[in-house]
Automatic annotation (TrEMBL):
GO terms for cellular component: cytosol. Signal peptide: none annotated. It comes from the Bacteria. This is Carbohydrate kinase PfkB domain-containing protein. Keywords: Kinase, Transferase. Gene3D superfamilies: 3.40.1190.20. The keyword Kinase applies. One of its GO terms (molecular function) is kinase activity. Transmembrane segments: none annotated. Residues 175-271 form the Carbohydrate kinase PfkB domain.
């Protein structure tokens, strides 16, 4: 069996449509958006997830390879967008994913994205990959807790010390750190690359240099006509991972990811995720400012 190209680990989600009284949903979760993005960019995505038997994967591209671990429930979210930001509720959660769930045939992908959405990936998963695999983590799911009503709140990343030594890059948002940049300090000291996404303002790249200092680079945005922001960070993280694995240039990868995510928010769900050709054409027409 050939090793996976791009391996995506985390829960798929049922994203309930708050405007649909019949309880309709669309497929969500970091790995779902990541799989569509990887396919659109010409790569071969493999998802390892947990879900109940009744989950519908029809929204995923046909080329996505699926490994679905059995679970009594599927992680289910409701997203409510307000002028003050997003409010999330989680009504059910699938079972956790541990290193023992990762078959040996999945240990050698070209790139692996750890994309928890409900604190479901155990820290030992990060250590199963060989040195040639580019491992990227989006820690938002490790930085969430749920109150008695299921409302999602932020918390410190408690497993960071166990995960960070085994990853090459971390991608997270201002929302994940409640806009407190001081929370980045400990992460930047432990991982070679960290990218902070900043909504309409683009992103910031933090690179740890050999002498222990940190180099900070602002990556300007592509202006977008926002229709649906859900999944923008997941699109960004996947595009960054793919382009960095291809070029080993983090600035190029972050700019590529900015452009990819900006197209992604211009339509509902995954409909706006662009092709590689669209992204590269835009970058060629709008060269980076030097």
């Amino acid at each position: 069996m050939a090793a996976p190209d791009v391996l995506l680990i985390g829960h798929v989600a049922r994203d309930l449509l708050s405007t649909d009284p019949t309880g309709g949903y669309r497929l969500g979760g970091t790995v779902s958006f990541a799989a569509v993005t990887a396919a659109a960019l010409g790569r071969r995505p493999t998802i390892l997830t947990c879900a109940a038997p009744d989950i519908d994967f029809a929204e995923l591209p046909a080329e996505v390879e699926l490994y679905v671990l059995p679970s009594e429930a599927t992680t289910t979210f409701t997203n409510v967008y307000t002028e003050e930001g997003r409010i999330q509720y989680c009504s059910t959660r699938a079972r956790p994913i541990t290193a023992a769930d990762i078959d040996a045939s999945l240990h050698h992908p070209r790139a692996a994205l750890l994309g928890p959405i409900a604190d479901e990936i155990s820290p030992d998963v990060a250590s199963v990959f060989d040195e040639e695999t580019l491992v990227v983590a989006t820690p938002q799911g490790w930085m969430r807790h749920f109150d008695e009503n299921g409302r999602v709140h932020g918390k410190p990343w408690e497993s960071a010390d166990e995960v960070l030594p085994h990853v090459d890059a971390v991608v997270l948002s201002l929302e994940d750190i409640n806009s407190d940049l001081q929370r980045l300090t400990a992460m930047v000291e432990r991982v070679p690359l960290l990218v902070l996404t900043e909504y309409r303002d683009g992103s910031t790249l933090y690179r740890r240099e050999g002498d222990g200092t940190t180099r900070v680079t602002r990556i300007p945005p592509r202006p977008a006509r926002e229709v649906d922001p859900t999944g923008a960070g997941d699109i960004f993280a996947t595009a960054f991972m793919i382009r960095f694995q291809e070029t080993r240039d983090p600035v190029e990868a972050a700019r590529f990811a900015n452009v990819t995510a900006s197209f992604g928010v211009e339509a509902v769900g995954v409909a706006g995720i662009p092709s590689r050709e669209q992204v590269l054409a835009y970058m060629q027409e709008h060269p980076a400012r030097t």
